[in-house]
Amino acid sequence: MKRIYLDHAATTPIHPSVKDVMRDAMEESFGNPSSIHHFGRESRKRLDEARTTMAKSINGNYESIIFTSGGTEANNLAIFGAAYANQHKGNHIITTQIEHHAVLHPCEQLEKEGFDVTYLPVNENGLVDIMDVKKALRKDTILTTIMFVNNETGMKQPIQMIGNMMRSRGIIFHTDAVQAFGIESIDVNEMKIDLLTVSSHKIYGPKGVGFLYKRDEIELAQRLFGGEQERTWRSGTENTLAIEGFKKAVEVLQDERDKRNEHYQSLTNRLIHSLDEKSIDYHVNGDLSPEVHVPNIINLSFPGMDVEIFLTNLDLSGIAVSSGSACTAGAIDPSHVLRAMYGEDSPRLRNSIRFSFGKDNTEEEMEQVAERIQLIVNRLASKN
Ligand SMILES: Cc1ncc(COP(=O)(O)O)c(C=O)c1O
């Protein structure tokens, strides 16, 4: 049985060119970038080059990139850092109900510490209404954190409009762009983004590395204390090996992004077409229009299915997908994203699957996926 991996929003394999670069880097360069001797200087040079690549990829300055251990740490630094540094100006934060836990949990923690957080609702397509954002603004609002692309549904929020609104009011705007970076072209200046989170392992780079873009003018409270690395925003010897791999992943992405996006769209179309051809009963969670949706993630509800049984059967048939929601102690929690879209009682919370495509998936695989789904649905339906 040929296994089919359709969980690239969870993580991607490492790109062969990234592997090569990391293997070479491991052999050629081990110095500590803070050391002043030859070995240190060699590592420093490589680190500087990677920083330049990251900065250019979002049209930011060289100085604006803070390397972190990934998306979670970058989100934590942005949210706690901005909240603590600006609490003398106010204690109100705006976010949405559909953020990743790496944003929601920091916000919940800040609430416990006395900050006031507004969790904006979304409509049935998982989109925030810009008028709701406007209505939520207060004199004491210091930070707005709204994700670029949702990891469960692939829906894109109106980032540019939110950026304009926040900049005109002097409110810090952070966006978690972990799922957007591989797909969308991002310009932090044009989009008026102050803080932006990126993670390497969603774009064929290694795990455990990412960055936070911080616009020069933005004050952040220091979270880690130690050495002077990353201009003190993130003390600790840099993960030079992973950063080299991340750099290569970004370079390859820049060459291939358009081609990959076209490919993802054809995979989405083929999967939908094959499901329709087989008259499989499903609903799209969200809206597949390209203006509001990325081509590599689709979330589908299969009426009558139970997500846990369905996922297990899909795995047994060689298909790796996910429910998009957290798995706690082996049990799947109903998705907070689908809850925000459809309400607590919607059956979609218990019968939805996220498919996320990668550059090496093929249209033939999409047909096989539809075939295997048909078998499973028929088998499970006959047991009910
Ligand atoms: C939207 C979003 N934000 C943050 C993260 C966390 O990133 P990392 O795994 O690099 O900590 C993820 C990863 O699943 C994500 O999808």
TrEMBL record:
Gene3D superfamilies: 1.10.260.50, Aspartate Aminotransferase, domain 1 (3.90.1150.10), Type I PLP-dependent aspartate aminotransferase-like (Major domain) (3.40.640.10)
Gene Ontology molecular function: cysteine desulfurase activity; iron-sulfur cluster binding; metal ion binding
Catalytic reaction(s) noted: (sulfur carrier)-H + L-cysteine = (sulfur carrier)-SH + L-alanine
Residues forming coiled coils: none
PROSITE patterns from the UniProt entry: AA_TRANSFER_CLASS_5 (PS00595)
Keywords of this entry: Iron, Iron-sulfur, Metal-binding, Pyridoxal phosphate, Transferase
Enzyme class: transferase
Swiss-Prot/TrEMBL cofactor(s): pyridoxal 5'-phosphate
EC number per UniProt: 2.8.1.7
Start and end residues of each Aminotransferase class V domain: 4-369
Zinc-finger found in the keyword field: no
Alphabetical list of PANTHER family matching this protein: CYSTEINE DESULFURASE, CYSTEINE DESULFURYLASE FAMILY MEMBER
Stated family: Belongs to the class-V pyridoxal-phosphate-dependent aminotransferase family. NifS/IscS subfamily.
The name this protein goes by in its record: cysteine desulfurase
Native organism: Filobacillus milosensis
